[in-house]
Amino acid sequence: MKLRSREQGIIYTGSGGGDCGISFTEGTEYLVYAQTSTMYGDKELLVTIICDRTRPLIQAKEDLTVLSEGKEPTNIVKLAEDLNGHTENKQSEEERRKISSKLFIGLTAAVVALLGIVIYYVRSKARE
Questions:
Q1: Quick check: helix, strand or coil at residue 71?
Q2: Mean of all residue pLDDT scores within the chain
Q3: What are the phi and psi torsion angles at 104 (to 5°)?
Q4: How far apart are CA 17 and CA 110, in angstroms?
Q5: Dist. CA 97–CA 89, nearest whole Å
Q6: pLDDT digits (tens, 9 = 90+) for 23-72
Q7: Positive/negative CA dihedral, 78, 54, 48, 96
Q8: How far apart are CA 24 and CA 22, in angstroms?
Q9: Which long-range contacts (CB under 8 A, 24 or more apart) does 81-86 make?
Q10: What contacts 22, CB < 8 A, 6 or more positions away?
Q11: Which among 3, 78, 4 is positioned nearest to 45, based on CA atoms?
């Protein structure tokens, strides 16, 4: 998905808690940098994360100097209509949490096992 100059689109981001999402404040205008990604679901979506230069407009003076004056969009997003096609992303949010939980448990088990191997190795070397 690529937006051309003067188009609006829906930008996706995470909800926080380690998923790199940006916490947008309602009523604040932002300069948003986004790219297509499957980071938040199976479909390619236009996504912005905390590592991008997305920031409130009042903090983006340097960027705006380089980008110059913007233009009003000609393609207006109808949010309710456009989001209806993306409800599967909300549904898969629970699935992503389950996968993250399983991944965390698996990584914890691997770290504990590795720690046990290191302790065993150190003790066996100390006995020699």
A1: coil
A2: 79
A3: -60, -45
A4: 22
A5: 12
A6: 888 889 888 888 888 888 788 888 888 889 999 989 988 888 888 777 77
A7: negative
A8: 6
A9: 82/10, 83/10, 86/10, 86/43, 86/45
A10: 13, 14, 48, 49, 50, 54
A11: 3
What is the DSSP secondary structure assignment for residue 6, as one 8-state letter? T
Q: How far apart are CA 91 and CA 107, in angstroms?
A: 25
Beta-bridge mates of residue 37: 45
36: tokens are: 């297509």
Q: Select from 36, 19, 13 the least CA-distant residue to 97.
A: 19
DSSP string, 63-84: HHHHH-S----SB---HHHHHH
Prediction pTM value? 0.51
Tell me what pLDDT residue 44 has: 86
* Closest to 44 (Cα-Cα) out of 106, 89, 103: 89
Q: Which two tokens stand for residue 121?
A: 């190795």
